[in-house]
Amino acid sequence: MSQSATIHDQRRLVRQLLDDSSPSDAPTAYYALFYPVARSTLVTRTDAAGRVLGFAGQFQTGIDLFRPLVTLRCRSAEVAAGLLAELLRPGRPYILFASLNQFPLVGGSLQIANEQILHIYRLDIARFQPEINVLVQCSQAEDGLPRCRIESGGQQAIAGVNWQSPAFAEIYVQTDPAARQRGWGRSVASAITETVVRGGRVPLFLVGQDNEPSRRLAESLGYIDTGARQIYADAVYLGYPADPER
Question: How far apart are CA 147 and CA 157, in angstroms?
Fold first, then answer.
């Protein structure tokens, strides 16, 4: 696409590849469509008829100030290789965060390490029964997103929102090791889930495929596995591959 195109032009094209009302696309769509413009860079590729063949984006996040987050949605490895070459710098480290079905398309362009496969869970509101725990305190974090916490005796459990789009919000839960087995994690997870629902969004919970305790927690609260998978990995851009289809 023309270099004069604005990010808003790019996002209009990206919408042809992503469904921001789908939980499967929601994590990628959050960055591609809703992340602050000043910290977002998008590149797109179209064919001669104007059909969108793919996009790639990099985003400056608080996850790692020195490694931009990279996501993409492409129809072929060749398109992915060309877009990554336009977007990234050889030898620089990045964080790859994309739908798992995109992973085979970047093997020639990125050196991958420490990959995590995340299951995308979505709340089934019919299965959700809010819990009342008087120890839970709910407030806003510094970024304005909701957070619920239990703290006692120097130990705590916290649940909050990593990001939110118009339709979805991804929750997280963190419990100090010494505070586990007390039900605190479940209580704060229930509280943040209820907060998100009251705010008019569908809660999502991204859980590592080997994290059985978190999967049990999600399912016990009424979250269901959508079947969609997201990859989160350390990546170094190697340059345009000799064989993009590799």
Answer: 11
